[in-house]
Design brief:
The complex is a heterodimer of chains A (about 10) and B (about 220). With about 10 residues, chain A is an all-alpha fold. In chain A, about 50% of the residues lie in helices and about 0% in strands. In chain A, about 10% of the residues are buried. By secondary structure, chain B is an all-alpha fold. In chain B, about 70% of the residues lie in helices and about 0% in strands. The termini of chain B are far apart. The chains are: A mainly alpha (about 10), B mainly alpha (about 220). Chains A and B meet through helix 1 of A and helix 1, helix 3 and helix 7 of B. Chain B: One of its GO terms (biological process) is protein retention in ER lumen.
Protein backbone atom coordinates (compact mmCIF):
# COMPACT_ATOMS: atom_id res chain seq x y z
CA UNK A 1 0.00 0.00 0.00
CA UNK A 2 0.96 3.66 0.15
CA UNK A 3 3.40 3.56 3.07
CA UNK A 4 5.07 0.29 2.05
CA UNK A 5 6.14 1.20 -1.46
CA UNK A 6 7.74 4.53 -0.46
CA UNK A 7 9.91 2.55 1.90
CA UNK A 8 11.94 1.49 -1.09
CA UNK A 9 13.48 4.97 -0.84
CA UNK A 10 16.33 5.92 1.48
CA UNK B 1 14.72 3.88 -9.21
CA UNK B 2 14.89 7.00 -11.36
CA UNK B 3 17.68 9.41 -12.19
CA UNK B 4 16.46 12.08 -9.76
CA UNK B 5 16.47 9.66 -6.84
CA UNK B 6 19.88 8.20 -7.79
CA UNK B 7 21.28 11.73 -8.11
CA UNK B 8 19.69 12.56 -4.74
CA UNK B 9 21.24 9.56 -3.01
CA UNK B 10 24.64 10.24 -4.56
CA UNK B 11 24.46 13.92 -3.55
CA UNK B 12 23.54 12.85 -0.02
CA UNK B 13 26.43 10.38 0.09
CA UNK B 14 28.74 13.04 -1.32
CA UNK B 15 27.75 15.54 1.38
CA UNK B 16 28.66 12.98 4.06
CA UNK B 17 31.98 12.22 2.34
CA UNK B 18 32.77 15.97 2.20
CA UNK B 19 32.07 16.24 5.92
CA UNK B 20 34.14 13.16 6.81
CA UNK B 21 36.93 14.49 4.57
CA UNK B 22 36.89 17.84 6.34
CA UNK B 23 36.97 16.29 9.79
CA UNK B 24 39.57 13.62 8.90
CA UNK B 25 41.85 15.83 6.79
CA UNK B 26 41.81 18.94 8.97
CA UNK B 27 41.31 17.01 12.25
CA UNK B 28 38.82 19.79 12.99
CA UNK B 29 35.05 20.02 13.26
CA UNK B 30 34.89 23.78 13.68
CA UNK B 31 31.72 25.16 12.19
CA UNK B 32 29.96 21.79 12.37
CA UNK B 33 26.94 21.30 14.64
CA UNK B 34 27.22 18.12 16.71
CA UNK B 35 23.49 18.46 17.41
CA UNK B 36 22.56 18.17 13.74
CA UNK B 37 24.82 15.13 13.45
CA UNK B 38 23.17 13.50 16.46
CA UNK B 39 19.72 14.19 15.03
CA UNK B 40 20.80 12.52 11.80
CA UNK B 41 21.85 9.38 13.72
CA UNK B 42 18.31 9.26 15.18
CA UNK B 43 16.83 9.91 11.71
CA UNK B 44 18.72 6.99 10.15
CA UNK B 45 18.11 4.58 13.04
CA UNK B 46 14.35 5.24 13.03
CA UNK B 47 14.17 5.33 9.22
CA UNK B 48 16.01 2.06 8.61
CA UNK B 49 14.43 -0.19 11.26
CA UNK B 50 13.53 -2.56 8.43
CA UNK B 51 17.21 -2.95 7.49
CA UNK B 52 17.26 -6.60 8.55
CA UNK B 53 13.61 -7.45 8.09
CA UNK B 54 12.91 -6.20 4.58
CA UNK B 55 15.23 -6.65 1.60
CA UNK B 56 14.49 -4.11 -1.15
CA UNK B 57 17.74 -4.35 -3.12
CA UNK B 58 21.47 -4.67 -2.55
CA UNK B 59 21.84 -0.98 -3.30
CA UNK B 60 19.19 -0.08 -0.72
CA UNK B 61 20.75 -2.25 1.99
CA UNK B 62 24.32 -1.09 1.30
CA UNK B 63 23.32 2.59 1.32
CA UNK B 64 21.40 2.20 4.61
CA UNK B 65 24.45 0.63 6.26
CA UNK B 66 26.71 3.36 4.85
CA UNK B 67 24.42 6.15 6.11
CA UNK B 68 24.09 4.65 9.58
CA UNK B 69 27.82 3.87 9.78
CA UNK B 70 29.05 7.27 8.59
CA UNK B 71 26.64 9.23 10.78
CA UNK B 72 27.84 7.27 13.83
CA UNK B 73 31.47 7.82 12.76
CA UNK B 74 30.95 11.58 12.53
CA UNK B 75 29.36 11.77 15.99
CA UNK B 76 32.15 9.54 17.38
CA UNK B 77 34.83 11.83 15.85
CA UNK B 78 33.20 14.96 17.30
CA UNK B 79 32.60 13.47 20.76
CA UNK B 80 35.53 11.17 21.41
CA UNK B 81 38.45 11.72 19.01
CA UNK B 82 41.17 13.27 21.18
CA UNK B 83 42.13 15.98 18.66
CA UNK B 84 38.83 16.63 16.87
CA UNK B 85 36.74 16.96 20.03
CA UNK B 86 38.95 19.88 21.15
CA UNK B 87 37.85 21.80 18.03
CA UNK B 88 34.13 21.43 18.81
CA UNK B 89 32.83 24.73 20.13
CA UNK B 90 29.71 23.82 22.10
CA UNK B 91 29.12 27.47 22.99
CA UNK B 92 28.21 28.24 19.39
CA UNK B 93 26.14 25.07 18.94
CA UNK B 94 23.27 26.53 20.93
CA UNK B 95 20.09 25.19 19.31
CA UNK B 96 17.96 23.19 21.77
CA UNK B 97 17.69 20.20 19.45
CA UNK B 98 16.02 17.90 21.98
CA UNK B 99 13.01 20.22 21.73
CA UNK B 100 12.60 18.95 18.16
CA UNK B 101 12.21 15.30 19.15
CA UNK B 102 8.93 15.46 21.06
CA UNK B 103 6.91 17.56 18.57
CA UNK B 104 8.08 15.34 15.70
CA UNK B 105 7.15 12.22 17.67
CA UNK B 106 3.74 13.57 18.69
CA UNK B 107 3.07 14.62 15.09
CA UNK B 108 4.04 11.12 13.93
CA UNK B 109 1.59 9.65 16.46
CA UNK B 110 -1.14 11.86 15.02
CA UNK B 111 -0.24 11.89 11.33
CA UNK B 112 0.98 8.63 9.80
CA UNK B 113 -0.03 6.00 7.25
CA UNK B 114 -0.50 3.00 9.55
CA UNK B 115 -0.49 2.96 13.32
CA UNK B 116 2.34 0.46 13.65
CA UNK B 117 5.68 0.92 15.44
CA UNK B 118 7.62 0.71 12.18
CA UNK B 119 5.43 3.20 10.37
CA UNK B 120 5.14 5.71 13.21
CA UNK B 121 8.93 5.69 13.68
CA UNK B 122 9.49 5.90 9.92
CA UNK B 123 7.14 8.91 9.81
CA UNK B 124 8.91 10.40 12.87
CA UNK B 125 12.22 10.10 10.99
CA UNK B 126 10.77 12.05 8.05
CA UNK B 127 9.53 14.87 10.29
CA UNK B 128 12.79 14.93 12.25
CA UNK B 129 14.94 15.00 9.12
CA UNK B 130 12.99 18.01 7.88
CA UNK B 131 14.19 20.08 10.87
CA UNK B 132 17.49 18.31 11.67
CA UNK B 133 19.51 20.98 9.82
CA UNK B 134 18.28 23.81 12.08
CA UNK B 135 21.11 23.58 14.66
CA UNK B 136 23.64 23.63 11.80
CA UNK B 137 22.04 26.64 10.09
CA UNK B 138 21.85 28.55 13.39
CA UNK B 139 25.52 27.78 14.01
CA UNK B 140 26.49 29.00 10.53
CA UNK B 141 24.67 32.28 11.12
CA UNK B 142 26.66 32.84 14.30
CA UNK B 143 30.06 31.76 13.03
CA UNK B 144 32.19 34.50 11.56
CA UNK B 145 33.80 32.61 8.73
CA UNK B 146 32.39 29.47 7.14
CA UNK B 147 35.08 27.30 5.59
CA UNK B 148 34.47 26.02 2.06
CA UNK B 149 34.11 22.36 3.01
CA UNK B 150 31.44 23.17 5.61
CA UNK B 151 29.58 25.34 3.11
CA UNK B 152 29.75 22.62 0.48
CA UNK B 153 28.59 20.03 3.00
CA UNK B 154 25.43 22.00 3.84
CA UNK B 155 24.80 22.81 0.20
CA UNK B 156 24.89 19.15 -0.93
CA UNK B 157 22.87 18.07 2.11
CA UNK B 158 20.14 20.50 1.09
CA UNK B 159 20.41 19.68 -2.62
CA UNK B 160 19.81 15.95 -2.05
CA UNK B 161 16.32 16.49 -0.66
CA UNK B 162 15.54 18.93 -3.47
CA UNK B 163 16.42 16.16 -5.93
CA UNK B 164 14.10 13.83 -3.98
CA UNK B 165 11.26 16.31 -4.55
CA UNK B 166 11.92 15.99 -8.29
CA UNK B 167 11.93 12.20 -7.83
CA UNK B 168 8.48 12.37 -6.16
CA UNK B 169 7.14 14.53 -9.00
CA UNK B 170 8.50 12.02 -11.50
CA UNK B 171 7.01 9.04 -9.61
CA UNK B 172 3.63 10.71 -9.25
CA UNK B 173 3.18 11.88 -12.86
CA UNK B 174 5.04 9.17 -14.72
CA UNK B 175 4.70 6.06 -12.56
CA UNK B 176 1.97 5.40 -10.10
CA UNK B 177 -0.07 8.62 -9.68
CA UNK B 178 -0.35 8.05 -5.95
CA UNK B 179 -0.21 10.99 -3.53
CA UNK B 180 2.19 10.56 -0.62
CA UNK B 181 1.61 13.68 1.42
CA UNK B 182 3.83 12.88 4.41
CA UNK B 183 7.19 12.52 2.62
CA UNK B 184 6.22 15.23 0.14
CA UNK B 185 5.39 17.90 2.71
CA UNK B 186 8.30 16.92 4.97
CA UNK B 187 10.67 17.05 2.00
CA UNK B 188 9.35 20.43 0.86
CA UNK B 189 9.69 21.90 4.37
CA UNK B 190 13.21 20.46 4.60
CA UNK B 191 14.24 21.95 1.26
CA UNK B 192 12.57 25.29 2.04
CA UNK B 193 14.64 25.62 5.24
CA UNK B 194 17.75 25.74 3.03
CA UNK B 195 16.31 28.46 0.77
CA UNK B 196 18.17 31.40 2.28
CA UNK B 197 21.35 29.33 2.67
CA UNK B 198 21.17 28.40 -1.03
CA UNK B 199 20.68 32.08 -1.90
CA UNK B 200 23.77 33.27 0.00
CA UNK B 201 25.81 30.20 -1.03
CA UNK B 202 25.19 30.79 -4.76
CA UNK B 203 25.69 34.55 -4.35
CA UNK B 204 29.09 34.00 -2.68
CA UNK B 205 30.01 31.49 -5.37
CA UNK B 206 29.12 33.96 -8.15
CA UNK B 207 30.93 36.88 -6.52
CA UNK B 208 33.92 34.67 -5.54
CA UNK B 209 33.50 35.87 -1.99
CA UNK B 210 33.59 34.12 1.36
CA UNK B 211 30.20 32.69 2.34
CA UNK B 212 28.59 34.82 5.05
CA UNK B 213 25.07 34.39 6.39
CA UNK B 214 23.32 37.47 7.81
CA UNK B 215 22.75 37.00 11.54
Amino acid sequence: DNAKDLKDEL
Amino acid sequence: MNLFRLAGDMTHLFSIIVLLLKIHATKSCSGISLKTQELYVIVFLTRYLDLFTRFVSLYNTVMKIVFIGTSFAIVWYMRYHKVVKQTYNKDEDTFKHYFLLLPCFVLALLLHNEFTTMDVLWTFSLYLEAVAILPQLVLLQQSRNIDNLTGNYVFFLGAYRGLYVLNWIYRYFLQDHRARWIPWISGLVQTALYADFFYYYILSWKKHEKLKLPA
